[in-house]
Q: What sequence folds into this?
């Protein structure tokens, strides 16, 4: 399994027979490694979207068309995109599992909000926010999407036992490093934790030090955007 941070909440995950892009926001993302764009997107087999906010979805339908890959996400958003952009948009919902190649992808709850901003600045709701648990090769990865700590997380730990947690941890709009560390230590039993959705803007946390201090004995990784690490 290989992880590459695309900056902000964007992830490239090479797992089993798939290369998944999760919330691959590019245009306007100040942390996206533009000089390595081809390497970031080459070989992608599918895109997962956690919710509608522009810092997760802007430019994604166009990218899906460019790469000729399907997109998976909340049913209302996928219905909208499938019709508007003529892409393969696969909608499902929380508790549902889809098969993507050798991988099982389960949509799980998150606590946040979800909308898309029109050009005139108005926002329209597009279903609700979510996270994902991705399973294959005897392993499971939890990708939180934008959320706060939830008791639900303990249920998913019991059912899926993910050993890797990719956790939003920037604060202000989501849980911060300390709250994400609480989730990792009290509700999950991760061997590896990777914070994301931080550093991008001044309002967000700029360091993973608080998470590292709060999780002794856990492998906490904070790679640079564009850096690929083995998990």
A:
């Amino acid at each position: 399994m290989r992880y590459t941070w695309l900056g902000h909440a964007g992830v490239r995950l090479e797992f089993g027979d798939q290369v998944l892009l999760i919330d691959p926001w590019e245009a306007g993302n100040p942390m996206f490694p533009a000089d390595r764009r081809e390497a970031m997107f080459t070989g992608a087999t599918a895109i997962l979207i956690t919710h509608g906010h522009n810092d997760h979805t802007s430019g994604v339908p166009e990218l899906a068309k460019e790469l000729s890959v399907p997109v998976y996400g909340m049913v209302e958003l996928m219905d909208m995109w499938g019709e508007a952009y003529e892409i393969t948009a696969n909608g499902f919902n929380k508790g549902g599992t889809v098969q993507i190649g050798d991988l099982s992808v389960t949509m799980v709850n998150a606590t946040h909000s979800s909308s898309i901003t029109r050009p005139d600045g108005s926002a329209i709701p597009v279903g609700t926010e979510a996270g994902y648990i991705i399973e294959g090769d005897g392993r499971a990865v939890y990708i939180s999407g934008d959320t706060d700590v939830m008791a639900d997380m303990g249920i998913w730990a019991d059912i899926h036992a993910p050993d890797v947690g990719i956790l939003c941890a920037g604060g202000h709009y989501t849980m911060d490093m300390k709250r994400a560390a609480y989730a990792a230590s009290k509700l999950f039993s991760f061997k590896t934790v990777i914070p994301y959705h931080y550093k991008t803007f001044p309002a967000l946390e700029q360091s993973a030090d608080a998470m590292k201090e709060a999780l002794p004995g856990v492998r906490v990784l904070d790679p640079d955007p564009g850096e690929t690490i083995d998990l």
Notes: The two ends are 5 Å apart (CA to CA). Residues 75-85 form the longest helix (11 residues). Residues 2-222 form a domain with the Metallo-beta-lactamase; Chain A fold (CATH 3.60.15.10). The chain has a mean pLDDT of 96.
